[in-house]
Each structure stands twice: as C-alpha cells, then as structure tokens.
C-alpha cells in the first residue's frame, strides 16, 4: 500500500490540476457545491464493487444486489479527489464482461450457496453497465474478466475435488485444465468488444483497464490445507496451477486487450500485491472466509482496495493531466 505521504502527493497533483478543487471543509461548508471538472464512470465486477464485509458497508439502500461497499476503491478515490471528479459507480458483484458491455444483469448480492445465502435474493435486473457512459465522460475504469472465465465456478470445483484428495495431487487441474485456454480466448475477444463499445460511447474518454491483484502466493507452501481463512480444501498443486495457468494469464489477456485499443491504459495491481496474497500474514485479499469467519470467497479487503485506489488514482491523474 502506498504511504500516507504518497497519497497526499497524489492529492496535491489533483489540486494543481484545478485551482480550489480541494478546499478545507470548514470553508467549503459555506459555499455552493461546484461542478466537478471531470466525469468518471467506474465499471466492473466484485473486485471493483467491494461486495464482502471486509471491504466495508453496503451504502446503497434499498439494496440492488450489486453490493457496492464504502471501502471499495472507487468510493475511496471519490473521497480522496473531492470535487475534482464526479463518480458514477455502476460496478456490480458477479458481473461478466458481457454484463458490462450489453447485457442486463441479475445481481446475486451475497447469495453464493453453499458458502452464503442472501435473504433478499433474487434481485431485479440492472441495466448493462455501459449505459452509464455518456459522450462527455472523461475517464472510464473497468475491472472485469474473472467471471467471464468462470473463476468462481472453478474455485468451487477445486474445493469440491480437493476435499476428497487429502491435500494431495492436482484433481482440479486434471479435470479443468483443458478448458482454460478456450475460456481465456473467449474472454479476450469479449474484452476487446467491450473496449470498442466504450470508446464508441465516449470517443474522448481515457479508458483504464484495471487488472486483478495477487491472490495466490508464488510459494504455496504458505497455504495450509483445510484452512478456512485461506483456500480451505484446494490442494497446493491446484493452487500453483490456478496462479500460473489461470490468474496470471487472465491479467495478461486484459493487458493485451488494453494495449491493442486506442485511448486505453492498463493498471497493474499484481506486482504491488505479490506479498499480500490470501496466504500472506499481511493479506490484502481474504480467503474463503475472513478473519471474523464471514464469507469472503477470495476478495480484496479494505487494505486491498486502498492499494488499488492508490494505483488507479495515479492512472486517473495521469490521464486527465495529459488532456
């Protein structure tokens, strides 16, 4: 995580871009709210929305099932940058690339049997996230792809197969490995179509494709078999496979798509989180359950979102200062 001093430097850069954008609260209270200088739309899945209790409180009531939390990185950045940027956050837990691009989504809230049940499930459909993008939008951030390759389903299958393995072998890899290249290829195609659609809707916007953080450490001996706060019954061999052949290639797929589309940059969260995986002492991603035994199903906590906020903030400031 960037230090407080670095965050202040980022905020100082924002203030330099617009005179008086960040004013002391005691002075601002007596003044009418000024229009923001830039419009930002945040799109994405649960790694953007927050979703889990360890990423803060759901702040939208009545709930729509998307589970945007107050410590998720879009909300952190919105507070940090004050009136510089006006945020529209339509990220949604369980969203796929197609849900961002063109398909109405039926949110699941925190309903993920057998891990958790949501008493308000089912929820009405929400519009495709791209509908929030307007011709005058200045910055678009998007974090999606994991659900398009079925990562949650893969995890559930690995939990199931690992449960009967005694922690030995690679039962999940043995069953699913052949399907992964096709899943990644499909996700890459859909990602490109999504970026083209966003560029079409906001021709002058800077699009920032946000990658995924480190979830599984390079040294999987840190991960204990049947540890509820880590990966429960997933074997060490399958964790190595998931990191090497699923998660790291997914980030590469996203980065490649960003590199081949105009006005699109890639925000790398992987390198800065290498020592903060689910199995590290200073974790920024929770395991199947968090430290308070609440369902988390491998999602960033508030510290992980703080780190994401620092990197995405830097990318946003660079994007708007280049205009």
Can you give me a brief rundown of this structure?
With 323 residues, the protein is of the alpha/beta class. It has helices at residues 4-17, 25-28, 46-49, 73-81, 97-101, 151-163, 171-176, 180-201, 236-259, 302-321; strands at 38-44, 85-89, 139-143, 206-210, 264-267.
Name the average pLDDT. Answer: 91
Main beta sheet, described? Answer: 5 strands, parallel
The assigned CATH architecture of one domain is 3-Layer(aba) Sandwich
Rounded Rg: 20 Å
Might you state the CATH topology name of one domain? Rossmann fold
- Can you tell me the overall shape? globular
In total, how many beta strands? 5
Stretches where pLDDT is under 50 for at least 5 consecutive residues are: 1-33
Give the neighbour order of strands across the main sheet.
Answer: 2-1-3-4-5
The CATH superfamily of one domain is identified as SGNH hydrolase
CATH top level label of one domain: Alpha Beta
- Percent helix, as a range, is 25-40%
- Would you tell me the structural class of the helices and strands? alpha/beta
Keywords:
5 strands, disordered N terminus, 5-stranded parallel beta sheet, single chain, globular, 10 helices, 323 residues, alpha/beta, Rossmann fold
Q: Would you write up a description of this structure?
A:
The protein is an alpha/beta fold and 323 residues long. It has a domain of 223 residues: Rossmann fold, CATH 3.40.50. Helix content is 37%, strand content 8%. The protein contains ten helices and five strands. The protein has a five-stranded parallel beta sheet, sandwiched between helices. Helix 1 packs parallel to helix 10, helix 4 crosses helix 10 and helix 8 packs parallel to helix 9. The protein is globular, with a radius of gyration of 20 Å.
């Amino acid at each position: 995580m960037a230090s407080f001093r670095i965050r202040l430097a980022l905020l100082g850069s924002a203030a330099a871009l617009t005179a008086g954008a960040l004013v002391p609260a005691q002075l601002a209270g007596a003044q009418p709210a000024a229009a923001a200088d830039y419009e930002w739309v945040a799109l994405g899945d649960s790694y953007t929305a927050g979703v889990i209790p360890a990423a803060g409180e759901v702040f939208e009531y009545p709930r729509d099932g998307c589970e945007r939390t107050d410590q998720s990185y879009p909300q952190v950045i919105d507070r940090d940058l004050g009136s510089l940027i006006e945020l529209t956050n339509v990220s949604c837990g369980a969203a796929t690339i197609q849900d961002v691009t063109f398909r109405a989504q039926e949110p699941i809230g925190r309903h993920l049997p057998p891990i958790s049940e949501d008493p308000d499930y089912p929820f009405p459909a929400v519009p495709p996230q791209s509908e929030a993008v307007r011709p005058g939008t200045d910055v678009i951030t998007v974090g999606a792809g994991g659900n398009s390759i079925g990562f949650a389903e893969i995890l559930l299958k690995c939990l199931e197969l690992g449960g009967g393995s005694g922690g030995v072998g690679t039962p999940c890899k043995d069953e699913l490995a052949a399907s992964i290249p096709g899943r990644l290829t499909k996700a890459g195609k859909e990602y490109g179509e999504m970026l083209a659609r966003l560029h079409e809707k906001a021709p002058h916007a800077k699009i920032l494709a946000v990658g995924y953080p480190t979830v599984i450490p390079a040294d999987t001996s840190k991960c204990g078999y049947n540890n509820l706060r880590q990966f429960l019954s997933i074997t060490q061999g399958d964790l190595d496979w998931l990191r090497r052949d699923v998660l790291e290639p997914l980030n590469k797929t996203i980065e490649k798509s960003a590199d081949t589309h105009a006005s699109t940059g890639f925000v790398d969260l992987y390198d800065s989180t290498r020592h903060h995986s689910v199995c590290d002492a200073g974790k920024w991603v929770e395991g199947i359950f968090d430290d308070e035994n609440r369902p988390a199903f491998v999602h960033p906590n508030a510290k992980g979102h703080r780190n994401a906020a620092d990197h995405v903030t830097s990318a946003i400031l660079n994007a708007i200062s280049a205009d």
